[in-house]
Amino acid sequence: MGIKIAGAPCCWGVDDPKNPYLPPWERVLQEASQAGYKGIELGPYGYIPMDIERVQAELAKNDLTIIAGTIFDDLVSESNLESLLRQVDDICSLITKLPPSPQEDGQHFPTPYLVIIDWGHEERDYAAGHPDRAKRLSNQDWNNMMAHIRALAELAWTKYGVRSVIHPHAGGYIEFEDEIKQLLEDIPYETAGLCLDTGHLYYSKMDPEEWLRNYADRLDYIHFKDIDLEIYGQVMGEHIRFFDACAKGVMCPIGQGIIDYHSILKLLNEIDYHGYITIEQERDPRNSDTSLRDVSQSIAFLKSVGY
């Protein structure tokens, strides 16, 4: 099994590029390198600048490569499609000019990937983790979202050779079991792969092991998180946005929460997974002074159990 562990700026609280408390992107790259990462995601559009020379210099200084860029935006609204397509162009034109990451034998598609996530709907944000009460899209809105995803994935692939992976995410319109299954019916594997996230699956009432096993043939990329069960129980009883739950500490370092990473390692061997796994631990960026400690603990734990 060839697995490479990578990082993401969300471990430093970087999810909303307009948040005034974000740490400098140069510090995130420096600390990611200090923690032992060789690869990191670009983070949300607008955080790391679309400046090839500056970004390349910082990556080289920290011995890092970019393994994915992210569309983290409203995939439903017709009025947003032009902006989404522009983001694909900006992100893919940057990440394909940067030095490539090492590839593993058996990896389905080479990095860098384009991670596609639906986000930005208040009515779903407050229902994150609650499949029983979350509003679902109308057939027309769902079909619009699927058409938009196809357009983004086709642009990324045909123009840049970048593989798109769709990431079900707590608080978006692709979150729960019924929605992910419908997505997989509507978007063929030829168009886009799947990025499953252990923490989001658990948060949204699914078994991460079961999903990794059952959808191994659609899986191009994986995110690892862990969940503090006590805080999870508290936030499930509150009317709370997803990232406000993260600010309370619902996501914890890998190995300190409820998700069984010993069993997941055994499963990844069974399904013969090769490629990248990215550690994530969303938080309030005002708490980013503990990010280096936490990501270092996550990496140390994963290495200690055989990753």
Describe it for me?
The protein has 307 residues and is an alpha/beta fold. The protein has a single domain (3-304), classed as TIM Barrel (Alpha-Beta Barrel), CATH 3.20.20. The protein is 40% helix and 16% strand. It is built from twelve helices and ten strands. It has helices at 25-35, 52-61, 81-95, 122-125, 139-160, 177-186, 198-203, 208-214, 229-236, 242-247, 261-270, 291-304, and strands at 3-6, 39-44, 65-73, 113-118, 163-166, 193-197, 219-224, 226-227, 251-252, 275-279. The strands form two sheets. The chain has an eight-stranded parallel β-sheet. α3 links the parallel β3 and β4. α1 (25-35) packs parallel to α12 (291-304). The longest helix has 22 residues, at 139-160. It is globular and about 50 Å long. The model has no long low-confidence stretch (mean pLDDT 97).
Task: Tell me what the CATH architecture is.
Answer: Alpha-Beta Barrel
Summarize model confidence as the mean pLDDT. Answer: 97
Cα end-to-end separation: 9 Å
Instruction: Write the element-wise H/E pattern from the N-terminal end onward.
Output: EHEHEHEHHEHEHHEEHHEHEH
Q: What name does CATH use for the topology? A: TIM Barrel
User: Biggest β-sheet, characterized?
Assistant: 8 strands, parallel
Distinct helical segment count: 12
Just give the CATH class.
Answer: Alpha Beta
Fraction of residues in H or I helices: 40-55%
Molecular shape: globular
CATH superfamily: Divalent-metal-dependent TIM barrel enzymes
- Tally of discrete structural domains: 1
Please give the radius of gyration in angstroms: 18 Å
InterPro entries: IolE/XylAMocC-like, Xyl_isomerase-like_sf, Xyl_isomerase-like_TIM-brl
GO molecular function, one term: isomerase activity
Domain Xylose isomerase-like TIM barrel: 29-304
Keywords: Isomerase
